[in-house]
Design brief:
The chain has 44 residues and is an all-alpha fold. The protein has one domain. Helix content is 80%, strand content 0%. The longest helix has 30 residues.
Length: 44
């Protein structure tokens, strides 16, 4: 794992963090959007 960490720690150090950070909010936003759309459709 030590040698594997050296390679990715050079280029994709923030890619991993950004992926986790941006992954959740994106999923939540999409879920909220779908929920609001379905709710408006059901209400109407």
């Amino acid at each position: 794992m030590a040698h594997i960490e050296r390679f990715p720690s050079r280029k994709p150090p923030r890619i991993k963090g950004s992926g986790n950070f941006f992954g959740w909010p994106l999923l939540l936003m999409i879920a909220i959007l779908i929920g609001s759309m379905s709710m408006s459709l059901f209400v109407h």
